[in-house]
Amino acid sequence: MPRPTARVLTLLELLQSGGTRTVAELADRLGVEGRTVRRYVNQLIDLDVPVESVRGRYGGYRLGPGYRLPPLMLSDDEALAVLLGLEAGRRAGLTTTEQTARETASAKIRRVLPKHIARRLDTLLDALAFTDQPGQSDTPDPPDTGVLLTIADAVRHHRPVSIRYTDRGGRRSERTLHAYGIVAHAGRWYVTGKDAQISEDRTFRLERITDARTLPGSFEPPVGPGPAERVLSAFATAEYRHEITLRIHGTVGQIRAHLPATVASLEEHEPVAGPDPSTERWLRVELRAERLDWLPPVLAALDRPFVIERPDELRDLVSALADRLTSYARGPDSNDQGPEIAPPVPRPVA
């Protein structure tokens, strides 16, 4: 039978889960009588935990605001979520004025973590990479914690992992993955690695993985780009309706300001020994897109000399935009029709 102190801590955890809890509900969860619940509540109040009594038919107890933060009871998943949030904030530069606040908060939670959770957290952080692109997640469901930790362990120990995956078309499959790393990008979680069945590198969204289990054996991770670079490259080379090749004269920074790594890949058109990234030169730009109508305004905003190698349809769209801009510049008297609004530049969808 749990000791009274353990029951008091359990009561605190129940109240911290939110809402008003009736005396009957708390008594049932704690396995005690109603008067014992009231005694436990008084003990919490003596510890300066702000427990409020709610009167009425649906009354009971709830936590209220206090003058200081009461002890927090966190589950393993909740502690992991807090520590990952602190680490993500640090890597994204979203820290408080006093950076020690993040460090001390992390240290306090780590100090009381069960050893097996602490080991799994370290494994996950070792396997995790971040891209430079922030974002707000519109993912309906976050990745499963068990899947996340299993894949992180497979990354650290170079073990193959079997995953059950549902693609964006709703098709389900089971794959064997040699996972290179886990990447946080634009509010989503991804795992990148080699799909053993087809012997090709692939990138998977973690919330679409419903099950993961480690398999016997091991693999040698490849040399070259890290997991974050591989994910960005996968976005830029994904299968879309149109394949586009351009030559643009400018600096890497000028081009990347309008065509980021998630959209386009860059390479030297005419290799130069030790090129300076800040030097203007001809660069070959390759990208894929479902639609072309958003690209002419981007090229216009880039304001650099460019050559369209393919497709011919893009040349026609750029010429049409140039004609419209020329017509607008001449004034309303030269236009028989109202101005046409260029479509917005779409955000790349992973």
User: How large a portion of the residues is in β-strands, by DSSP E?
Assistant: 15-25%
Helix content: 25-40%
* Total beta-strand segments: 12
Q: What is the mean predicted local confidence, pLDDT?
A: 80
Shape: elongated
Biggest sheet architecture: 6 strands, mixed
Q: Give the ordered list of helices and strands.
A: HHHEEHHHEHEEEEEHEHEEHEH
From the N-terminal CA to the C-terminal CA, the straight-line distance is 52 Å
Structural class: alpha+beta
Q: Helical region count?
A: 11
Low-confidence stretches: 134-140, 338-350
Radius of gyration based on Cα positions:
28 Å
Quick recap:
This protein is of the alpha+beta class and 350 residues long.
Structure description:
- The chain is of the alpha+beta class and 350 residues long.
- Strands 3, 4, 5, 6, 7 and 8 form a six-stranded mixed sheet that branches.
- A hairpin with a 2-residue loop joins β5 and β6.
- α4 packs antiparallel against α5.
- The longest helix is centred in the C-terminal third of the chain and has 19 residues.
- It is elongated, with a radius of gyration of 28 Å.
- The C terminus is likely disordered.
List strands and helices in order, with pairings.
Blueprint: H1 4-16, H2 23-30, H3 34-46, E1 51-54, E2 60-63, H4 76-92, H5 99-112, H6 115-127, E3 128-130, H7 145-157, E4 161-166, E5 172-185, E6 188-195, E7 200-205, E8 209-214, H8 227-236, E9 242-250, H9 252-256, E10 264-268, E11 281-289, H10 295-302, E12 306-310, H11 312-330
Parallel strand pairs: 3-5
Antiparallel strand pairs: 1-2, 4-5, 4-8, 5-6, 6-7, 9-11, 9-12, 10-11
Helix pairs in contact: 1-3, 2-3, 4-5, 6-7, 10-11
